[in-house]
Amino acid sequence: MGVAGTGPIENDLTNHMQRVVIYAPYGKDADTLAQIVAGEDIEVVKVTDCSGLDEQLGPSCAALVVTEEALGPHQEQVFLRHLQAQPIWAALPILALVADASRLPPALRGLGMRAYRSELVVLQRPTHPETLRSTVQTLIMSRQRQYQVADHLETLKRKEKHLEFLLAELDHRVKNLLGKILSLLSLTRRETIDAEGFSAKFEARTRALVTAHDMLNGKNNLPATIGSLLENALAPFLPSVKSNVQTEGPELSLLPHGGLALAMAFNELATNSVKYGALSADDGIVSVRWALEGETPHLVVDWIEERGPAPKDSTRTGFGTKLLTVIVALELDGEADLVFRPEGIHWQLRAPYAGAER
Fold it and tell me: Confidence band (pLDDT; 50, 70, 90) for 180?
């Protein structure tokens, strides 16, 4: 193929290899130019025929040095093909060595007339080696600036894709949250008979949803753990019921999707317990336990009430019952049971646990 190089072609622009291609059909010219141009940070590739040049031109070429003998009629098409295919940030630096700078070969005249993206420098031979070397260094520096532009463009593309992802995620979360609020509105309206009762219940449930949303999305650096969600649900009733609540479980964080539903469940259980259940009695006890079970981790949460008024197993299914038995299970892709025992209710949730990266 007539190509000799000191290393493989570098296509990774992040490394910015200073690879100079010397295209000279006469071997002695190529060797002489290589000796002049070569340096510790420059890789020289010598090309002696058109097929070899076709392989070497591209974004990883820092500069092209070409002699007049190589600039035949066919060569213009080779140049133009590569210049047309350049990335938008690229303008190939070309140093042409000619016998008469006032009479350029057709291949070079075509580059100027067609206004293709290239940085063409013409030196008339004979040229002092230092002039040749400094010109190549200048072209390499120009190419390095192009590489920097390429890096910036790539960074902008990544940021644009990330922004698109964030906007899509925001759209999804907003719609999800609005859907939950509409469900709260609809179901709370069904179970209340007066405006005052509806307002109080809807406000309390919405506040619980907002607080849980803040915790699960890391606002104010609050940890979105099961324990913190439970503590938040009980907060309005503390410290009066603190001695009546027993909790046990590891530190387990939750993803926002399922965490909102669990937070709402805790809020519903706590509110009902204070009004009608174990927490309405001086010696009533609420035990809340959670753990991971099985080889494929499943989250198991138990809310057990004792020593309170006997619960009424009403056939009328309100929002609270639907939330505890249907909505939470659907959100967490699990199962939930609510049992009305004489000594108090027992609510259990079982769902796959994937954790949450914090």
Answer: low
As for how many domains the chain has, the answer is 2
Residues 149, 249, single domain; the answer is no
Q: What is the CATH number of the domain that holds 84?
A: 3.40.50.2300
Q: What is the CATH number of the domain that holds 303?
A: 3.30.565.10
Domain that holds residue 29: 3-154
Q: Choose one of 101, 136, 154: the last residue of a domain.
A: 154
HEC string for the chain: CCEEECCCCCCCCCCCCCEEEEECCCHHHHHHHHHHHCECCEEEEEECCHHHHHHHCCCCEEEEEEEHHHCCCCHHHHHHHHHHCCCCCCCEEEEEEECCCCCCCHHHHHHHHHCCCEEEEEEECCCCHHHHHHHHHHHHHHHHHHHHHHHHHHHHHHHHHHHHHHHHHHHHHHHHHHHHHHHHHHHHHHHCCCHHHHHHHHHHHHHHHHHHHHHHCCHHHCCCEHHHHHHHHHHHHCCCCHHHEEEECCCCECCHHHHHHHHHHHHHHHHHHHHHCHHHCCCCEEEEEEEEECCCCEEEEEEEEECCCCCCCCCCCCHHHHHHHHHHHHHHCCEEEEEEECCEEEEEEEEECCCCCC
Per-residue pLDDT reduced to its tens digit, 270-324: 888 888 899 888 899 999 999 999 888 999 999 999 998 988 766 556 778 888 9
Say if residue 94 is in the same domain as residue 196.
no
